[in-house]
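lol ok so funny story. i was supposed to be doing the assay writeup but got distracted and ended up predicting the structure for this chain instead. priorities right. anyway since i did it might as well share w the group, maybe its usefull for someone
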Amino acid sequence: MISLNTGYIGALDHLRFFAAMLIAVFHLANGEFVHYMHLDIGVPLFFTLSGYLFFIIAYNQKEKEIIYWKFLYNRILRIYPLITLLFLLTVVIMDNFTALDFINLFGLNLPGKPRNSWASGDWGGQYLSFNWWTIGVEFTFYLLFPFIFKFYKKYGILFLVKLFIFIIILKFLLYYSFLEEYGWKKLGISFNYSFFGNFDIFIIGMIVAHWTNTKTHAFYAIFSSKLFFIFYIVTMWYMIINFADELPLPLMTSYQALLCGGLIVLYQNAFCKIKDSFINKLLSTLGSTSFSVYLLHDFIKNGINSMGIGDLFLNMFVDPSKYSSEQLQFILLILYIPIILIMSNLSFNIIEEPFLSMRVKYFTNLKKLRKPKNEAYSKFPTS
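and the output, tada:
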């Protein structure tokens, strides 16, 4: 997506779209296969992209400083117009809102009931099945990012490495302190839906961005081919399927983030020369709608099925009795996805884009912040 604060990086828009579609298919065709394939990797990919992209934006500004309130102003314009509309839509039919729900809208993800299942842990799931919990995680990262990057500029990459190690140690301490009392499943749900449980993903995204933007890497010339990227994707999914669930819970998100970091770097380098191609323009356009795809897909699916359109589609084109319920869900993707993409494009053009046009530059030159040597404090008494 085009930004006032950095040059356009089309490959990252492509990856946003792929991440949104992975999550959409995970929810739309919910079953053993999508769980086995870990298509929910789309969420760690989104989080890693956030850490990676914001680091690049800030790093490329060199001698400039982030203006905190302008940074948050842009983030609010990016997230909350569509979220607010969906929230108001929900208010129309729901009568059990509490003060906690309004607080959760702005990022805390506090559980309104015991987290004993994935459904109850997913705040927002009880309201028209919107996938709101990641918005709180993202926005909390936005609140912290200007400080994290400021400390990175002061102390260097070692600060990010130390922060990552500190987070992992705290996650292990928290996990094993309460494992006997709550069990791995409940703790896994709590980790999954909290900012702290995903904080390491954002930090890894920043570390990967530092590594790729401050060094000249010989392997780019060797491994930037599209063929190697395909090899990496196959290897990555093999590692996710076979090893992700075997790791201690506190390390699972870091493992996913490292794999996603490699995916981001290799994709960006393998496809950096397709800027003027039709496929680049198509994927960039689809990438701009990824936020709407993410928030709307489950709601649209439920609406289609509730109106009986899904059953009508199946009866017209296949014999439902010949397929399992999971196979029928995959067949219905032929119906769901075009409608979701059309609705998401409308949502982006009508709701998101007008607000995005109001974004501002949130960097200022450090020299402007420094007072002249001979004039500093000269106009006012010190006591």
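The chain is about 70% helix and 0% strand. Strands lie at 64-66, 363-365.
back to the writeup now i swear
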